[in-house]
Amino acid sequence: MEKFDWSRIRLARSPWRSQVVPDALPILIRWALEGEPHSYSDLAQELHDTYGHAIKPRKDLYGGVAGGVAQAIEWLSGQWGTPIPPLHLILVNKRTGHAGDGGYTISPAYFVGKSMDAEEDRRAHLRAAMDDVFTYPDWDRVARALGATMLTPATGAVEEVAADAPIPLPKVQEGGKPESDEHKALKAWVASHPEEFVDYGNFPAGTNEKLLSSGDRLDAHFDNGKQRLAVEVKTSRCSEDELQRGVYQAVKYRAIVRAEQKAERHVPNGEAVLVCTRAPSRETRALIQRLHVRFQQVPLEAEKS
Q: Vertex 128, ends 124 and 133: CA angle to 5°?
C-alpha cells in the first residue's frame, strides 16, 4: 500500500488544519478504544493538552477537523477494500448527545444501501455506526497505516466526580430459581398490553419466551415489522441486586436485537426496557441513567394472575 500523505486530504490543507487534523486522529482512536463519545470542546481541549494547539473560540471549526479525519478513514477503506467504521462519529453534540447529519454525508461509503431519508432511520444508523467504532478491533492497524502514533487508552477506574461515583456491581446468584407465579403473570400481562409501550412504537400484542440468536430468551418481545422491543421483567419481590441484574440484561438484549437487525439488513433501531412493579432505589436509578437503559414501572396488579 502506498504511503499515506495528509496533503491528499482536502480538509487538511489549510495551515491550521494541516497541523491539527493529523494530531486529532490518535486522540479519536484513543477515545474509540476507551468506548466513550466526546464533544468538540473536549477535542479542542485535548489537542491543546496533548499537542499544544491553541483552543479556537469557535468550536464549529473542529467540525472541519473531524471531517479531515473522516476523509482519511474513507481513503484507507478504499485502499483496503473493506469498510472502516467512521471514527469521527464519536464526536457528538454536547446538548443532544449524538452526531449530526454531517456524520454520514461526509462518509457516504459506510452507509451505502442504508435508508437515510427518515430522521428516525438516520439516528438508528448513526448510533449503530458509533457502536461499530467502539467495537472495531483494528484501530492499531489504522494508526500505522495513516502514520499516527498510538496514545495509551485510560484503563481502570475513572476519576470520581460528584454524581459519577462508582456504582458497585450487583451480586450474581449462581443457578436459577424456579419461576414464580408473579413473574409468569407479569410477563404475560406485559405481552398483552402493547399500549403500555407506545413510546417505543405501535406494536401488536407481544409474545413471551422469544428466543434470540444468542440463545437468550426474552420475558416479552414486541415486533411491528419495523421496530422491535425486548422486555425484561422483575417483580415487586425482587431484591435490589436482582433489579440491577435486570439493568445489565436490558443492555445485553438491546445489543443482541440490534445485531440481529443489522445481520438481516434492517434498520438497527431495536430497544430494550426493564419493567418492574416497584420503583428502583436511588443507586439503581443512577445505574439505569448511566447505562442509558429504559425503565418502566407498571401497576402492582400486573403480577397477579
A: 150
Strand 294-297, strand 271-276: pairing: parallel
- Bridge-based pairing of strands 271-276 and 228-234 is parallel
Helix (H) or strand (E) holding 19: helix 15-34
Farthest CA pair distance, the chain? 71
Helix pair angle (40-51, 61-80), 10° resolution: 80
Residue 183 makes CB contacts below 8 A (sequence gap 6+) with: 219, 233, 235, 303
Q: In degrees, to the nearest 5, what angle opens at C-alpha 106 toward C-alphas 104 and 107?
A: 65
pLDDT per position as a tens digit, 54-107: 999 998 899 999 999 999 999 999 999 999 999 999 998 887 777 776 777 878
Look at the chain and count its residues.
Answer: 305
Instruction: Find, among 264, 204, 247, the residue nearest to 229 by Cα.
Output: 204
Alpha-carbon span 43 to 87, nearest angstrom:
13
Q: Return the axis-axis angle of helices 240-263 and 119-135, rounded to nearest 10°.
A: 100
In single-letter form, the type of residue at position 175 comes to G
pLDDT tens per residue across span 58-68: 988 999 999 99
Handedness of CA 33, 291, 242, 274 (dihedral sign): negative
